[in-house]
Design goal:
Keywords: Biotin, Ligase. The chain is α+β, with helices and mostly antiparallel strands. The protein contains 4 helices and 12 strands, in the order βαββαββββααβββββ. It has helices at about 20-25, 75-90, 165-180, 185-195; strands at about 10-15, 35-40, 60-65, 100, 105-110, 110-125, 130-140, 200-205, 210-215, 225, 230-235, 240. The strands form 2 sheets. It has a 7-stranded mixed beta sheet, with helices on both faces. The protein has a 5-stranded antiparallel beta sheet with strand order 11-10-9-8-12, with no helix packed on it. The relative contact order is 0.16. The model has no long low-confidence stretch (mean pLDDT about 95). The structure holds biotin. Biotin binds near residues 17, 117, 118 and 136.
């Protein structure tokens, strides 16, 4: 189906992973604005090589964009997905809900993870972004148990949980909105929804862990970590805690 906002949205009862379908389409030259949604996934993938629990009722969506521009801007596209997701989530929650982004773009509700994004990009031979795939998982109805953190859903007491296709359509429209506003506005919006400056952070990169404080985002959208030896830009890794 084609959505009101002009995305080509394919809806499946079950897929192994929407991400694998859209990655294959990206590699095969499919034009941008392809969206693939599955009602459930049998082999959903998260960041850091983890599995992503994918029961019916939650959102499993992968989106293909071809924004062009230099490869170093890839982290900014990841931030854009996070900001758009935070806005789409806010739209189904009561005003004042405690939504925050955790770098790179976990979405926390009341401090518990309610959504995550697996952002993957391909660079062409000229060093430009060939494609970006946002794999978005949102706990709309079910909060799967995670070993290392609290989880939450967007469902509100006494109300039906948000419906996945309607939520996906709102999210695609929000992504278009932020794309139109530009990457500088995205960075500012991420900062407004992210941690406070100077928040202590513990970053894991492979087998090493690094302590520091949040010092903002740089021009390319990388996390700035203030450490005793200076401010370090970070483009990969995971924040613990
Ligand atoms: C995370 O670990 O926080 C990111 C989770 C991303 C899950 C989504 S669900 C849709 C898409 N398909 C997948 O297999 N993974 C992503």
């Amino acid at each position: 189906m084609t959505t009101a906002a002009g995305w080509r949205l394919a809806i499946h009862e079950e897929l192994a992973s929407t991400q694998d379908v859209v990655l294959a389409a990206a590699e095969a030259g499919e034009p941008e604005r392809l969206a693939v949604l599955a009602r459930r996934q049998s082999a959903g993938r998260g960041t850091q090589g983890r599995a992503w629990s994918s029961p019916s009722g939650n959102l499993f969506l992968s989106l293909l964009l071809r924004p062009g521009g230099p490869a170093r801007a890839l982290p900014q596209w990841s931030l854009l997905a996070g900001v758009a997701l935070a806005d789409a989530a806010a739209a189904v929650l009561p005003p004042g809900a405690e939504l925050r982004l955790k770098w790179p773009n976990d979405l926390l509700l009341g401090g518990a993870k309610c959504a995550g994004i697996l952002c993957q990009g391909g660079v062409d031979t000229a060093g430009n972004i060939g494609w970006v795939v946002f794999g978005i998982g949102v706990n709309l109805a079910v909060a799967p148990a995670l070993p290392d953190r609290l989880t939450a859903t967007l469902a509100q007491p006494g109300a039906l949980p948000p419906e996945p296709v309607a939520f996906a359509q709102s999210l695609m429209a929000t992504i278009d909105l932020w794309r139109g506003r530009g990457l500088e506005a995205v960075r500012d919006a991420w900062l407004a929804r992210g941690p406070m400056l100077d928040t202590p952070l513990l970053l894991r990169q492979g087998d090493t862990a690094r302590e520091g404080c949040f010092a903002g985002l740089d021009q390319d959208g990388r996390l700035l970590l203030a450490t005793p030896s200076g401010v370090v830009p970070v483009s990969a890794g995971e924040l613990l805690g």
